[in-house]
Design goal:
The complex is a heterodimer. In chain A, the strands form 2 sheets. Chain A has a 7-stranded mixed beta sheet, with helices on both faces. In chain A, strands 6, 7, 8, 9, 10, 11 and 14 form a 7-stranded mixed beta sheet that branches. In chain A, helix 3 runs parallel beside helix 4, helix 5 crosses helix 6 and helix 7 crosses helix 8. Chain A folds into 2 domains: 172 residues, Response regulator (Rossmann fold, 3-Layer(aba) Sandwich); 136 residues, Rossmann fold (3-Layer(aba) Sandwich). Chain A is elongated, with a radius of gyration of 24 Å. Chain A is α/β, with parallel strands linked by helices. Helices cover 72% and strands 4% of the residues of chain B. Chain B contains 14 helices and 4 strands. In chain B, strands 1-4 form a two-stranded antiparallel ribbon. Chain B has a two-stranded antiparallel ribbon with strand order 2-3. In chain B, a hairpin with a 6-residue loop joins strand 2 and strand 3. In chain B, 48% of the residues are buried. The chains are: A alpha/beta, B mainly alpha. At the A-B interface, strand 8, helix 7, helix 8 and helix 9 of A face helix 3, strand 1, strand 3, helix 11 and helix 14 of B.
């Protein structure tokens, strides 16, 4: 009986591995065929592009995002459409129907065969994109990435902001809500999370520099939400029980902010304790409107999409991208070069949302 | 005789450890035995404690299930997004989630009870499958909670305000469901033949079969029950959080299993009580919600939690060993 079972399992495993193997080899075949096709197309395109370059600018820019079904990227598309309208260039957005690295590579493969001059990518998995981005660059296509500072096969990577600057922005808003005085503390998903801790450090640094009447809670400088808004809620309650003088929270993860706001609301501390931090408009709408959440901060995907296209165009036109470059948007008017990677440029693309403008955002 | 039995039970020692810990928090912060703190703790306790019930049945039967957070999440997610706006009666949401949970539990049950595959691995697989389906098919992401359930989430039994600090805490209505579930679980395990069958299987499945218990049916029941409850608990979590978070419960299986074992549920099966599992979860909840009150910095909280879990398990393990030795001596004497 046991032997039979074992043999059944083995047979099943073999069949499974066989079919899986077949499937993947079939796929690679088709992609390589496609690759040849695109290469041929690109050669033609290369000639055409150089011809066009002399005449003037009629660039075709494709933006490939992580996931078309996500409201975040629907918002990004409005920025790209606006760019197309403002400039008269052919700029459009494509992406997989689900956040899936393999599917995204497929989409990138497809668009580079569409005679494009520039490709902007918001990668799902930066490492998985490298080969296809290299292919694109080999064909002379300009490659710009966003939220992919580790990508090597790109001309430039555009980040919405630098981490310390964003932290400072959260602090400015919190100070405004708190009336520039009182005790505050900071929350991150995990103490080991690099970017969130940099935001929190940036917020604290900004407070030390600008707001002398604000003080960081001495007993508990940083708490963890484990990226779970229920945990954030419990921790915020506990902090407020233990330290009755706390008047403000800096939330960094998008789970922290709504969790803390819910605690403030329930404890009856609205207008006495304030929270500002990263958050998504749809999720926080109710809390913003009932006054328990002062501001959520984030970067506007529409502006990021617009800025990427501007950057692609500048590269196509041979303009230099460097420290201080102006992309023509308020939040990207003076780019900062990342000291550790000269390809990475950072804007000041943060925005804050409160009850006055939350209804303008739907994601 | 009866007091002697209590003195020798694991539950008794876990209760003492929990009580001691509460006293320390009270002395250090003066905030533990306040109305609003107790309400906060109960609220935080509700969801994991309900999971304990399904998990302990599976542990008692001699298996381990790690798929219940996934079942809860996928049932909750489907109900709260696909059926959002379909029903006006909130109970329908819970009912639908229970049906989805039941179906997923039945899949676990068939694979484990019929094919006799190891439950830990099977449920690890179904767990990954559930999260995968949620991501692949339903495109899971954080969503706002629909209006009908939002209103349920805002309902409260009562509010407690601390006269000194002025802090108010609300008791969610759903604690009533937790109480009902505990009574139901206790009844099944202690007063029905089915419940006795679960213990018998955990002791020795072959002996149980020869004694006339239907092992297949009993195992099917516990996985279906656990799945069905997980579906309900998933929706409860969403209503309490006032938001739909697909990955929020991930990782809770470890807390729940730890609480059961702390409370004297034997991981190899055949032994465990509802009250023990509850006490185990009380200890886990109190620890995770009191370290800030104790003034322990975030960097050291995990170390502290680990130490208390190990002490708790050691106490219960020593107690079990003592009892076994006594039993062996008695048998040798006889």
């Amino acid at each position: 009986m046991k032997k039979r079972l074992l043999s059944m399992v083995l047979v099943f495993a073999m069949v499974a591995s066989l079919t899986v193997g077949c499937g993947s080899s079939g796929k690679t075949k088709s992609t390589s065929a496609e690759g040849e096709k695109t290469e041929a197309a690109a050669k033609k395109d290369g000639d055409a592009a150089s011809g066009e370059n002399k005449e003037g600018e009629n660039w075709k820019i494709a933006v490939v995002v992580k996931d078309l079904s996500n409201g975040w990227f629907a918002r990004m598309e409005t920025g790209i459409t606006k760019f197309a309208k403002d400039t008269g260039l052919n700029a459009y957005m494509k992406g997989p129907s689900a956040t899936d690295a393999a599917q995204q590579v497929q989409v990138i493969q497809d668009v580079i065969s569409q005679d494009i001059d520039a490709l902007c990518v918001v990668p799902v998995d930066p490492a998985a994109c490298e080969p296809v981005l290299k292919e694109a660059r080999d064909k002379g296509i300009v490659v710009i990435t966003h939220e992919g500072s580790t990508v090597e096969n790109c001309d430039y990577d555009l980040e919405a902001f630098n981490n310390a600057g964003y932290g400072g922005f959260i602090m400015d808003k919190l100070a405004e809500a708190m009336g520039e005085e009182g005790v505050y503390t900071t929350m991150v998903a995990h103490l080991t999370n690099a970017s969130q801790n940099e935001w929190a450090d940036g917020a604290v640094a900004c407070q030390k520099e600008k707001y002398s009447k604000l003080t960081l809670l001495e007993g508990l400088k940083r708490v963890e939400s484990e990226n779970n808004s229920e945990k954030a809620y419990e921790v915020a309650k506990e902090v407020l029980k233990k330290y009755s003088d706390v008047k403000g929270f800096v939330g960094t993860s998008s789970m922290d902010t709504p969790g803390i706001a819910r605690a403030i609301n329930e404890l009856g501390l609205k207008d006495k304790v304030f929270v500002v931090g990263t958050g998504m408009p749809n999720e926080c709408r109710q809390l913003i409107k009932n006054g328990s959440l002062s501001y959520i901060t984030l970067w506007d995907p529409a502006e990021a999409g617009y800025a990427m296209c501007v950057m692609a165009r500048m590269v196509l036109e041979g303009q230099k991208i460097e420290e201080g470059t102006n992309l023509g948007l308020d939040s990207y008017k003076s780019l900062v070069v990342d000291p550790s990677n000269p390809k990475v440029l950072m804007g000041a693309g943060w925005i804050s949302i409160n009850k006055d403008n939350v209804d303008e955002y739907d994601f | 005789m009866n007091t002697k039995r209590i003195l020798h039970s694991t539950e008794f020692y876990i209760a003492i450890i929990a009580a001691l810990f509460c006293m320390i928090v009270q002395i250090k912060s003066g905030q533990f035995f306040t109305g609003n703190n107790i309400v906060d703790l109960l609220r935080s306790f509700t969801i994991p404690a309900m999971f304990c019930l399904g998990e302990m049945m599976i542990l008692i039967s001699g298996n381990t299930d790690v798929s219940f957070p996934a079942i809860a999440s996928v049932s909750m997610y489907v109900v709260c997004t696909v059926f959002d706006g379909v029903f006006t009666n909130p109970l329908m949401f819970f009912l639908m989630a229970m049906l989805i949970g039941l179906a997923l539990g039945a899949i676990n049950g068939i694979i484990i009870a019929y094919f006799k595959f190891p439950a830990l691995i099977v449920t690890l697989g179904t767990s990954s499958l559930c999260f995968g389906i949620m991501q692949g098919v339903f495109n899971s992401k954080e969503e706002p909670l629909g209006e009908v359930l939002y209103r349920v989430g805002e309902m409260k039994l009562f509010s407690v305000t601390n006269p000194q600090s002025g802090l108010t805490s609300d008791m969610p209505v759903l604690v009533l469901a937790m109480a009902a579930l505990f009574v139901l679980g206790w009844f099944i395990l202690n007063k029905t033949m089915l419940g006795r069958g679960i213990y018998a299987i955990g002791g020795d499945a072959i002996a149980a079969e020869r004694a006339g218990f239907n092992v297949f049916a009993t195992q099917m029941f516990i996985y279906c029950f656990s799945g069905c409850m997980a579906g309900m608990i998933g929706v409860m979590r969403a209503t309490m959080m006032l938001a739909v978070h697909p990955n929020n419960l991930e990782g809770m299986e470890m807390t729940v299993i730890a609480a059961c074992v702390l409370g004297g549920v034997r991981i190899t099966g055949g032994k465990g009580t509802v009250i023990g599992a509850i006490l185990g979860m009380v200890l886990m909840t109190v620890i995770s919600n009191s370290l800030i009150l104790l003034g322990i910095s975030t960097q050291w909280q995990k170390v502290f939690t680990g130490i208390i879990i190990i002490i708790g398990t050691a106490v219960s393990a020593i107690q079990t060993k003592k009892n076994e030795k006594k039993l062996a001596v008695k048998m040798a004497a006889a």
